[in-house]
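[Q] Does anyone have a clean structure-token version of this?
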Amino acid sequence: MQTLRYGDRGLFVQYLQTALLRAGETLGEIDGIFGRRTERALIRFQDWMGLRSDGIAGRLSWAALYPYLIGSTFAILREGESPEALAARFETDAERIRIANPSARFEPGESLTVPLPFDVVSADLPYSSFLTAAVLEGLVLRYPFLVKYGIGSSVMGRAVEAIRIGAGPLRVGINAAHHANEWITAPLVLLFLERYAKAFAEDGAIGGVPARTLYESATLSLVPLVNPDGVDLVTGAIPETDSFYESAKALAGFYPSIPFPSGWKANISGIDLNLGYPAGWENARAIKYAQGFTRPGPRDYVGTRPLEAPETRAMYDLTLKERYDRAIAYHTQGGEIYWEYRGFAPLGSYALAQRFSDASGYRVANVPMNSSFAGYKDWVIDALGMNGFTIEAGRGVNPLPIGNLPAIYAENEGIFVNVLLENGDT
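[A] Here you go.
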């Protein structure tokens, strides 16, 4: 974690400000600028935590702030302290504590997970591999019936992780952020996961459907961040002095018409991850080479062979292992639903796409020929015979601003619910 001090700017200053606000400090808006307000708020927090009150966010300050990013802390139950009293101590809810500790006996001296009084998923911050990992950690702490597991690593060694919910026979896979500047799809799918998990834990409903119905209908495996390095490049989590940043910038120089880093879709090596699957890969290469994408860069370079990129290989291996019945790859933007590959789709695909359309208002569409090959959706349909879909969520110009997330979520909640239902009865 970066050491931050007065005068610093950027993504991690936003994370620092968010943690301080969640901890109850007053500092104004989250603007990514480490000014005097942020410094004073950090000094107050450090003093409260018994740390050196120097206004510098170093290792110990970040460790103390981390519970306010993952949404949970740990506490020892005191003599004579009930769950309600423990909840009062942390200004949270006793039922949340019970949900997070299903095996607890609530005896003095017992160490307990204490969910803090705010949602885990931040809906107003740019995402990164760090924040995504923190959110996944926090969700598993808060909802122990979730299962988190690694599926591979990126070029830079960042973990590519999946998380599972549900116990039903229908096997569903959802992934997001194959493309770096489509990073808003990561908080989109995580927002659904948190609301679904909360509804299940509290015996509630989501999208008008009892969460228990979804849980018993389907087993969902979700990969929120397929392209962690690329997303980190776009959202500013990689310092400009880092050698990977410098290398990516040099690659972008061969494509001067594409803005850097906001136009970056590829992984950090300049390979477009959604053009790396073994489904018409040679066709994709011919099309993209004809368009001028003949070397690594911000987008549309197919690599030298299918599955060359470790992130694509991770998704390939996971999908073969899980053998989904249905799979959705989330992208932005355009408000469209792609459901077939070269005129072929497994039985039920169009009907399911139409249900998605009815729920979201998005248009069921055929993929343009120039984008018709080597994508994740193409491969799961062609090679595995799955109901496979690409959802182009939201509208505008990538990267879509985080302020669009509430509207995009409202459009897509019905898609999430419908893909988990065998017969579509909502």
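[Q] Thanks! Anything notable?
[A] The chain has a mean pLDDT of 96.
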